[in-house]
């Protein structure tokens, strides 16, 4: 075979009539040299690529092996086949896994939202992992934490690792997220992490919740333990008995700052694959949860949570200086926050 090729090349060289046109021969040699050059270059490049990516070789082999199944090719960047170091995925080794992060602010319903997600057999949302200052102290610490979570090597009570089809966690905007937004966006886009923004429309209600929660941190109204989320109406009633006093002097400024923080996050993370959710919409319209499941690519299921809302009904019952607050917000762009926006 090798000989044949040699003969063939020799033959073509001999066949060429050398005298006919020296210019075209020169042209031929030039083209040949160029083709050779390009070929050698491409081989070199391939080799350096190979050297750089040996670290990921296992992942890629696994990915190629698993992708024989009929998978929508446009989804490829978002599908992962992690090989956890702490366990084997067993029967689900070739089920693709999608990565997500819930970006939110404290007291915006993200705890409740996460219990809903975790009621799904194939979703594993790992909580507020960056509440630990050490994990967010620098970008490399953030990345190694993310790597562990997305490789399914993070364990908490919510983990359902073997057959997880979507893995993520919740991340508050003030937990290093905005400080390192450039690097984090790059990581999200490189790894194909989908972003779920979860905000609250009524920022006055959020403020009441923040103040009441921080009061309970030391008051510990429920039999001497501090609780941020409750599972019974009795507990909810106990917690909502405390009515915070709102500083009406700084109120409009404070609301503006909260609003700006959310808008900044939307702007800074706009290049990621994302969906924007509002707590109020989720409460009013449970079919929004179908959109969420579609977005993170898991089979549709009925999602449930045992959590009970703490501050129900009209806000006037939950604020000590209601008259004052009512007067302050009337005529401002935040006037609508005064109204009751859901009835239970
Ligand atoms: C990043 O933070 C971790 C944990 O606080 C620390 O151990 C590590 O030395 C830091 N790395 C750099 C490059 O600063
Ligand atoms: C969801 O989990 C079940 C087992 O709990 C598994 O049989 C199924 O394949 C998983 N679905 C996906 C899409 O990974
Ligand atoms: C406090 O504890 C008592 C007895 O353990 C229990 O009956 C009661 O329901 C608890 N109250 C709250 C608000 O959790
Ligand atoms: C209310 O806010 C104003 C303006 O920020 C501040 O000067 C004042 O001390 C605050 N009052 C209380 C009771 O915190
Ligand atoms: C991030 O948001 C801030 C505030 O809106 C803005 O000044 C900055 O340009 C944004 N950066 C990117 C990369 O979007
Ligand atoms: C509920 O949400 C679904 C999905 O987002 C939407 O199509 C529908 O119009 C909403 N229904 C109401 C009453 O808002
Ligand atoms: C706010 O104050 C006005 C005027 O006193 C009153 O008519 C209105 O009902 C109050 N709004 C609420 C939500 O209590």
What does this structure look like?
By secondary structure, this protein is α/β, with parallel strands linked by helices. The chain folds into 2 domains: 2-52; 74-338, Rossmann fold (3-Layer(aba) Sandwich). 46% of the residues lie in helices and 8% in strands. The chain has helices at residues 2-15, 22-52, 57-66, 110-118, 139-150, 173-177, 181-191, 203-219, 233-240, 251-268, 279-284, 288-295, 322-329, and strands at 98-104, 123-125, 166-168, 170-172, 193-199, 274-278. Strands 1, 2, 3, 4, 5 and 6 form a 6-stranded parallel beta sheet that branches. One 2-acetamido-2-deoxy-beta-D-glucopyranose binds at residues 285, 287-288, 291.
Largest sheet report: 6 strands, parallel
SSE pattern, N- to C-terminal: HHHEHEHEEHHEHHHEHHH
Number of domains: 2
Strand content: 5-15%
Name the CATH class of the largest domain.
Answer: Alpha Beta
Residue share in helices? 40-55%
- Average pLDDT works out at 83
Q: Report the bound ligands by name, code or SMILES.
A: 2-acetamido-2-deoxy-beta-D-glucopyranose
What do we call the CATH topology of the largest domain? Rossmann fold
Number of helices, where a helix is a run of at least 4 consecutive DSSP H or I residues: 13
What is the number of E strands? 6
By secondary-structure content and strand pairing, the structural class works out as: alpha/beta
* Amino-to-carboxy terminus distance: 82 Å
Uncertain runs with pLDDT below 50, 5 residues or more? 1-18, 48-61
Q: Please state the overall shape, judged from the principal axes of the Cα atoms.
A: elongated
């Amino acid at each position: 075979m090798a000989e044949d090729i040699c003969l063939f090349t020799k033959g073509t060289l001999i066949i060429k009539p050398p005298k006919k046109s020296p210019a075209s021969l020169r042209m031929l040699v030039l083209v040949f040299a160029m083709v050779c050059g390009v070929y050698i270059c491409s081989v070199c490049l391939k080799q350096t690529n190979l050297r750089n990516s040996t670290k990921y070789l296992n992942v890629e082999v696994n990915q190629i092996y698993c992708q024989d199944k009929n998978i929508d090719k446009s989804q490829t960047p978002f599908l992962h086949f992690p090989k956890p170091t702490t366990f084997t995925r067993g029967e689900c080794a070739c089920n693709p896994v999608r990565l997500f992060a819930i970006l939110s602010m404290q007291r915006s319903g993200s705890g409740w939202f996460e219990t809903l997600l975790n009621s799904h057999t194939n979703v594993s949302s790992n909580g507020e992992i960056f509440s630990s200052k050490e994990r967010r102290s620098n970008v490399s610490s953030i990345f190694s934490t993310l790597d562990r979570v997305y490789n399914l090597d993070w364990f908490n009570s919510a983990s359902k690792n073997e057959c997880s089809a979507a893995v993520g966690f919740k991340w508050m905007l003030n937990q290093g997220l905005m400080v390192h937004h450039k690097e984090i966006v790059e990581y999200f886009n490189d790894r194909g992490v989908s972003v779920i923004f979860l905000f609250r429309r009524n920022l006055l209600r959020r403020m009441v919740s923040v103040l009441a929660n921080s009061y309970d941190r030391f008051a510990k109204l429920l039999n001497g333990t501090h609780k941020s989320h409750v599972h019974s109406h009795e507990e909810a009633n106990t917690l909502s008995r405390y009515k915070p006093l709102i500083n009406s002097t700084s109120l409009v400024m404070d609301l503006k700052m909260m609003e700006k923080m959310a808008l900044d996050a939307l702007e800074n993370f706009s290049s990621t694959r994302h969906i924007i959710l509002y707590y109020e919409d989720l409460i009013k319209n449970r079919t929004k949860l179908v959109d969420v499941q579609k977005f993170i690519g898991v089979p549709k299921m009925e999602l449930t949570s045992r959590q009970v809302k703490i501050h129900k009904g009209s806000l006037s019952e939950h604020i000590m200086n209601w008259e004052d607050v009512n007067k302050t917000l009337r005529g401002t762009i935040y006037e609508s926050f005064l109204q009751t926006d859901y009835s239970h």
